[in-house]
Design a protein that fits this description.
It is built from 10 helices and 11 strands. It has helices spanning about 15-30, 40-45, 80-90, 105-115, 140-160, 175-185, 200-210, 225-240, 260-275, 310-315, and strands at about 5-10, 35, 50, 95-100, 120-125, 165-170, 190, 215-220, 240-245, 280-285, 290-295. It binds 6-O-phosphono-beta-D-fructofuranose (F6P). This is ATP-dependent 6-phosphofructokinase. It is an enzyme of class 2 (transferase).
Length: about 325
């Protein structure tokens, strides 16, 4: 490889900037020319491509969001859009693309690979929903944001002796709810991967208040159901009124945690190494304590649920 483009696509995630910086700096270190594509695949189709220098990524390692901007691009789902995108790269002699995002981003990248571009995917999403990697860039920061918010909610929940139902993001994945739930000692955690019984949760609430608990936090992953309906049913069944807090996009913002900044740095560098070794159609993954490459196709398989232990522990600790 000689010329490598980098883009971010799909929902932004804290640490994406640190990953962009790593791709640019590692690439230039190895005498590659690196190009930034603005606005994800939409910008690629329109030719919004600029050569990046060392200074282009100065002072961004700690910043949330993505300096390259991002978009969800419908045109990239169609063969015409895919061809336009590949042609923009080919016209500039760019032979490879590093795409930072979720599985939708990887699908776009895969199409470009079929059109002759070498591609590497980096997992960047707060949802932690990509098969093949233990963690995605942004997940840890987002969990920390939820933990901080819940500790504030606890102050008011305790003062009013109230139940709070907190909805967190994650699309169809319950990992943010699960990790933040354990970290905050939530009384119950509702995630899409595990069926829940509101009668059981009501009983738990009653037991808790009987033995002197003065507040409760119910953590609900957005994929587990409509939080307003869940909260209403919980009031009806338990007899306790509650308040609903939907944390929303605040979970996508902020400076990356050190864990995410480290992960992003290592993954960005690994993506460039993979290209230098001649690899293509691979994703970068964290596996145990290592950063590895895996076939991009692995990311398209559904992520098997593997967090029974965390769920069970959180449940046991919140009796
Ligand atoms: O994939 C990241 C994510 O924040 C999900 O958790 C959430 O379901 C979705 O994006 C929200 O998308 P949008 O920002 O387009 O509303």
């Amino acid at each position: 490889v000689d010329k490598v483009a980098v883009l971010t696509s799909g929902g932004d995630a804290p640490g994406m900037n640190a990953a962009i910086r790593a791709v640019v700096r590692k690439g230039i270190f190895h005498n590659l020319r690196i190009f930034g594509v603005y606005h994800g695949f939409a910008g690629l189709i329109n030719g919004q491509i600029t050569q990046m220098e060392l200074g282009s990524v100065a002072d961004i390692v700690h910043r949330g969001g993505t300096i390259l901007k991002t978009a969800r691009c419908k045109e990239m789902l169609l063969p015409e859009g895919q061809k336009l995108a590949a042609d923009q790269l080919i016209a500039r002699g760019i032979d490879a693309l590093v795409a930072i995002g979720g599985d939708g981003t990887y699908r776009g990248a895969k199409k470009l690979a079929e059109l002759g571009i070498k591609v590497v995917g980096i997992p960047g999403t707060i949802d932690n929903d990509i098969n093949g990697t233990d963690f995605t860039i942004g997940f840890d920061t987002s969990v920390n944001t939820v933990v901080e918010a819940v500790s504030k909610l606890r102050d008011t929940a305790t003062s009013h002796e109230r139940v709070f139902v907190v909805e967190v993001m994650g699309r169809n994945c319950g990992d943010i709810a699960l990790h933040a739930g354990l970290a905050t000692g939530a009384e119950s955690i509702l995630i899409p991967e595990i069926p829940f019984d509101l009668e059981e949760i009501s009983e738990k609430l009653r037991r808790g208040f009987q033995r002197g608990k003065n507040h409760s936090i119910i953590m609900v992953a957005e994929g587990a159901g409509n939080v307003i309906d869940i909260a209403r049913q919980l009031t009806d069944q338990s007899g306790f009124e509650n308040r609903v807090t939907i944390l929303g996009h605040v979970q996508r913002g902020g400076s990356p945690s050190s864990a995410d900044a480290v992960l992003a740095g290592l993954m960005g560098a690994k993506a460039v190494e993979a290209l230098l070794e001649g690899q293509s159609e691979v994703m970068i993954a964290s596996s145990g304590n290592e950063i590895v490459t895996k076939s991009l196709d692995i990311a398209f398989a559904p992520k098997p649920y593997s967090k029974e232990k965390i769920y069970q522990t959180a449940d046991e600790l919140a009796i």
